[in-house]
Amino acid sequence: xxxxxxxxxxxxxxxxxxxxxGILNRTKANVKAVNDVSLExxxxxxxxxxxxxxxxxSTLGRTLLGLEKKTGGTIHFRGxxxxxxxxxxxxxxxxxxxxxxxxxxxxxxxxxxxxxxxEEIFIIxxxxxxxxxxxxxxxxxxxxxxxxxxxxxxxxxxxxGQRQRIGIARAIALNPSLIVxxxxxxxxxxxxxxxxxxxxxxxxxxxxxxxxxxxHDLGVVRHISDRxxxxxxxxxxxxxxxxxIYNNALHPYTKALLSSxxxxxxxxxxxxxxxxxxxxxxxxxxxxxxxxxxxxIATAQCKEVVPExxxxxxxxxxxxxxx
Amino acid sequence: MEHLLQVENLVIGFRTAKGTSQAVRDVSFxxxxxxxxxxxxxxxxxxSITSLSLLGLLPENGDIAKGSIRFKGEELVGKKEEALxxxxxxxxxxxxxxxxxxxNPVFTIGYQLQxxxxxxxxxxxxxxxxxxxxxxxxxxxPNPKEKLDQYxxxxxxxxxxxxxxxxxxxxxxSLLIADEPxxxxxxxxxxxxxxxxxxxxxxxxxxxxxxxxxxxxxxxIADKVMVMYAGEVVETGDVKTxxxxxxxxxxxxxxxxxxxxxxETQELSIIPGSMPSVDDEIEGCRFHPRCPFAMDICKxxxxxxxxxxxxxxxxCWLQEVNNHDKSTVxx
Amino acid sequence: MSAEVVLGKKAVAEKKxxxxxxxxxxxxxxxxxxxxLVIISLQIILAIFAPFLVxxxxxxxxxxxxxxxxxxxxxxLGTDNYGRDMWSRIVYGARISLVVGISTVAIGLVxxxxxxxxxxxxxxxxxxxxxxxxxxxxxxxxxxxxxxxATLGTSLVNVVIAxxxxxxxxxxxxxxxxxxxxxxxxxxxxxxxxxxSNTRILLKHILPNCTAPIIVNATMRMGTAILSTASLSFLxxxxxxxxxxxxxxxxxxxxxxxxxxxxxxxxxxxIMLTIFAFNVVGDGLRDALxxxxxxxx
Amino acid sequence: ACSSGSDDASGGESSSGGSGDVPKEITYxxxxxxxxxxxxxxxxxxxxxxxxQVYETxxxxxxxxxxxxxxxxxxxxxxDENTWVIKLNEGIxxxxxxxxxxxAVKYTFDELKDPExxxxxxxxxxxxxxxxxxxxxxxxxKTEQPYGxxxxxxxxxxxxxxxxxxxxxxxxxxxxxxxxPFVFEAWNEGDSLSLTKNEDYWREPAQLEKVTFKIVPxxxxxxxxxQTGEIQFLDAIPSDHISRIESLDNVEVQKKEGxxxxxxxxxxxxxxxxxxxxxxxxxxxxxxxxxxxxxxGLGVHNESIIGPRVFGYNEEANESAYEFDLEKAKQIIExxxxxxxxxxxxxxxxxxxxxxxxxxxxxxxEAGLKVEIETMEWGAYLDATRVGEHEISFSGWANSxxxxxxxxxxNLHSDNIDASNNARYNNEEFNKLVEESRVTVDQEVRKExxxxxxxxAIEDAPWIIMEHGMVTAAFDKSIKGFEIDxxxxxxLYRVTRE
Amino acid sequence: MIGLIIRRLGQxxxxxxxxxxxxxxxxxxxxGDPATIxxxxxxxxxxxxxxxxxxxxxDPVLVxxxxxxxxxxxxxFGFSYQTAQPVGEAIATRLPNxxxxxxxxxxxxxxxxxxxxxxxxxxxxxxLDVTSTTFALAGVSIPNFWLGTMLILAFSVNLQWLPIGGxxxxxxxxxxxxxxILPAITLGTGSAALIARMARSxxxxxxxxxxxxxxxxxxxxxxxxIWVHALRNAMIPVITVIxxxxxxxxxxxxxxxxxxxxxxxxxxxxDAIASxxxxxxxxxxxxxxxxxxxxxxxxxxxxxxxxxxISYD
Lengths: 323, 331, 297, 498, 313
Ligand SMILES: Nc1ncnc2c1ncn2[C@@H]1O[C@H](COP(=O)(O)OP(=O)(O)OP(=O)(O)O)[C@@H](O)[C@H]1O
Ligand SMILES: Nc1ncnc2c1ncn2[C@@H]1O[C@H](COP(=O)(O)OP(=O)(O)OP(=O)(O)O)[C@@H](O)[C@H]1O
Ligand SMILES: [Mg+2]
Ligand SMILES: [Mg+2]
Description:
The structure holds 5 protein chains of 5 kinds. By secondary structure, chain A is α/β, with parallel strands linked by helices.
């Protein structure tokens, strides 16, 4: 992983959701879904993003694609600031950045034939004729392992794995450079999940795609990612190569997370790092380090001071006072 | 010997708009006290339906068409609703997958916890309240007194699932059925819940039927494993055997398809295709369209359950070949 | 190469039907709904072929033969207080009632869908539109109709307008509700992620997916609309005489409940059957469109 | 504060009762509420019904002959054509104790005429120039021109004499004070109104102890209540309900020819309605007999504008009207091409007007016209016809003075175009005859003038008469001595219950 | 909760303001001049002019509206053109009857509706369900005035069980109660039917919910599953229907009051519209709208009581 070229550069990105209430329905507080995230994504890599439910993984992905309005920070795509572009100008970049969604069924319009759904992309972004569009769609379908005759079918006529293939076809239709896979395989059965992961890998090799692979399944992430980002309550807590994260995790949260994964090896005695309590809700955000309420090694400092995002070794970042 | 639970040749049919479909086909298994049986299989393989049938809680349009379910020797199939009701939540308890929806949103935690105590143990309201407070503490909920008066939506997912567990254990059942109790939870929370169930099982000596599709979870908690595919049991055995010496091609495929956190270089193997739906009638073995080892016989004749060894069986024609090989070797 | 294996031939053949045909097939399983469909079809036939089905004009008076009961020779359903043939009036009335029902619902739909889509999709418009809808809603229907008719004058067209306006907020609310939930669906996000415009998303993706509640509601509204014309006629604000509109017919027949009850009862039964029909079809549709109802009892 | 339904219900079941223990009470069902209770400030028939029981006029029409005869007045004389000297009965007091005298009469009439007060029936006394008190019990009315219908006008309910004290110190529109046989007790607006017997009445006190007016908007509900005995008395029976009422065992029906006339009127300022031929065609095309036959006996077929019970009627008028002749109508319509344009019949959506409109529409269609009906709410109808937006309209005139001048002048005299002359009829000769009928005091001469005017208008056909009304009442058989007069008014003074 | 109430009442003021403006304008645009109605056919143009002057109808419409609003702010709703009675007073005497009627019919509707809907849902597709559905549908299909007349003929005239007219007696007396029965049924039937249908479908949904399965798994008796666990959840959408339906119910009082000779606000209102009694129309319409909004506010509060997930703060 030498001469990495940066595709996406994110600095101090913030995305807040307002919590409304009170007599006048004013904003009372904010859910800090993404809170001061800085990172770089390299061309052709797969960056896995892990963390527990509600930690802001999806929000981060959507914000990067301009589907969610950011509250602060900057996003550079191929060196260009795209964070504040108007809807119109953004269209050009939208072609270059696509998304694959978690629920393959929910992400397809149930009333639209698959062929038409795919064709629509070309209607929006190209001026191809009808027959040309059809041709492109046929090619796409075969590309993701579906058949041409699937063109006229409705989403409910497909199995979960097939639907996810359609989602992938949609994402690669315009030859993007970046694809955000938001829990793209989580809803699938293991056997199908393996099929899709393999397909994603094939496509990446073929088209030199960059993936942001969001998942809570650490096994899958390990399998597919080059680098891994660990998030907790809207904050990045650790970032490193897959190797660094899985074999040499620094942050106590990463460690706990890794130790909690049930291993398919019977009889293995677990050395689980037990965490106390549940995730605090994003709306009553803890002061200091967001993890201090559950952290086994928290100190007084952690309660007060937000830890810095430090590079511990080459490419291995962590936010913790105790390391 | 009397088993805690013995299920024999269970067949469950559903009446649907298209006719009758069999969701569970000829399933048999047994469970002893203090033992954990994991039922694994992909979505739609009939895990939930099997476990629901144990309590007589099948959806309205579902029926046990054949087979028997014996709890401590007592036949449950065909038992009167009222008799079953007395068992439910008392001798046999159940925990469901979705802690979000499995609790009634309009009643307090306390009310829902006290219900089985009042129904089955005739406790007074105060006694029930005291007892439920203790139960909450037992499942590791801080401030149980306060939580009793809260509503489900005020609790996090992990807490809710703990409440469900407390509820299921209220009357100290001898059999606990857990249908994917941790699937909706985060891994760190899942770990806490799995530990909890394990501890309580030890304490109470219950038998546990645990439904999951996560092989990792199976490895962690199971004594015995039953692998289901498209309504049928394809392989059963104790946990070690299943993981270390799986016989059925499906089981093997399943294990190989799970990405391993600890293995960087693992090549994921693929089972092509996807599971048939319950009402697809397939000649021969239900797995043969996806089986890399399918032989002619597999397409024509349904394989019987074949014993691999004591406590290990597989529903696959390959077994016959193997057995045959073995027998020829030994003889 | 891979997944096709399991979708056996049977499965493919079975799933060929489009969404509407499937729904219709499910609908046909519901006996009450079929009954409703039959009534509606009959009504449509009556309306279309009215001139061929009667031997008297609907307004043809015969003052020498008034208030004849059901089964009178030459007048199967008797005659009214002007000696007009009840059967003819009922048949021609089907035309009017159908048109009134359909046009009020159509106008209400267009208004309600537009406002509902806008309110549901654009947060900024939501408050304004929905407060305005509340305003309309807070007027009891009859009162609103009375005000509109008092302003525009009594005529069937104005009745239609009044009832349409009155049904707008109902549709708007339903559509808005569906839009709010559909908007959160991933496929809308997916459309946004491929850069589809708001108009495209609203019209091609959100609207078609609100159809189920809209259809169900529209069928039921149809009944209400016909009933409302009856109430307005009772208050003297309905169709102009001698228009054989059913509501006006019952309202006028009300005075003869003693001498010739059939004058009010026959159109009453006609209205009841129609509303009943539309409602059971609506109910049936709701069930047919509900995925949970895919099971047979 | 009103009578409870149950008491009446038990009392009303005359069929069961032989005990003779009937309460001396009566409940009248009215479809609308009174607008007010002051004769000066109201103009509607429901208010009149109450006012007639509480107040009295100087003269009243004899229900049989329709001739004015003195009531509060004792006698009168006319020393010259423009002077009316009226002698009043002595020793009468209003319910509030105020003495009835010439001052009270002057006060009442001055108020009625006062433009500030804007009394709706001010026109009744409009010809009177001055009202003078000659002595305690004599008033002198002076007119600038002779005023023929003077006594009829003074018999009008709205010319009832009110207590000046009560009017000045209170609101007689809510708490009426008159000299009549009944004293106002309570008014629960929109629901009921009650009167009690005037114990100190100047004549023999009434038999009834209590009278209640109950508002029942739906006539069919009212009939049901009459049947169950919740009310005992109804009037103005719609023709569609008469057969039901007549079938009731416990109810007696009284019907009489009345002064009310219902007509079809043309807008004489619009084409082609200003053409005599068109109007004749319509007149020939309408078969009034067929219409009246639908009224179940509650209408009189007579095509004279001045009806048989109205002063100025002559049999000849009826006979000279255009007779039903469909062929003639068709012929005229065809010759003039009248069938090409659509004719709109405007009708208020109440009473029998809708029925007229529907039948006439059918008859005119038969004759070859294209006809539409436009029904309107009463308020909108009044507005539209007043300013002449209509083409043909249906309307009626109650004529509460039963005098022909009171019919022809407001409705067909050109003075009243833009007011009550909705036909916008303007005929010099006719105007003159009507004026003469008004300024003549000699009743015989008046009669002739009215007849001549009537004949002229029938010939000219700005109006085509549909029917002359019947006045009707239905009451419980236990009620005796009830008399309704041809203008539709009734007094409960002599009514008893047995 | 208090926040909700304050916010809603604030909205109510705005709403009433909007409604009053619309009503005011539409009454002025509408054909039919109050003066002609007061003056009657015989009044001359100058009589009418005098009447208009007295009523202030000659001022520019906006000035009239401003005057009206000024009055309303001070609690003065003007005087009836017809009877010169203060509008507030006229409404006050009739309001109790309308409230009695509306409340009684709502009670009838809720009791019958929920009961029928529950039975339908519990015995889905049985003859009981079909019968109850049929009745419910018939209920929405019958015109109010027709039903009212029929009930009178049957129960008052033929059977003589119940009185016909008015609501003169207090409802807690036997007589007053009897007076309420027929009008309440007449007015309540339509709403009962709607509630029944809503209750049925909502109940059907609820009994398939996971938490019902949980309750069964706990061994809860069938009866308490339905009446305790399911009912309260099923009520949530039903309550909204009740609130929305209340508007229709208020509209229905117009006809019911007419048929049963009840002296209520509905009748006051149609009479006022018919006679172009502007201040009375304004007053009654505002009142009805206010009642509607307040009832819906109450519905929202009940909503929060039934469903703990809803909080308005
Ligand atoms: N539209 C929204 N409005 C308000 N809050 C939101 C919205 N979307 C997400 N949130 C909140 O923002 C936080 C982060 O949400 P996000 O969906 O990004 O989490 P996630 O890590 O993707 O979780 P999951 O694994 O459950 O998908 C959560 O607390 C969530 O409740
Ligand atoms: N009420 C029902 N009517 C008809 N078919 C049903 C019904 N419930 C379940 N099934 C069918 O029975 C089969 C087995 O379902 P079951 O819920 O047991 O699967 P599962 O193994 O628990 O899957 P998951 O992992 O998704 O929970 C499925 O194919 C399903 O479609
Ligand atoms: Mg997410
Ligand atoms: Mg399951």
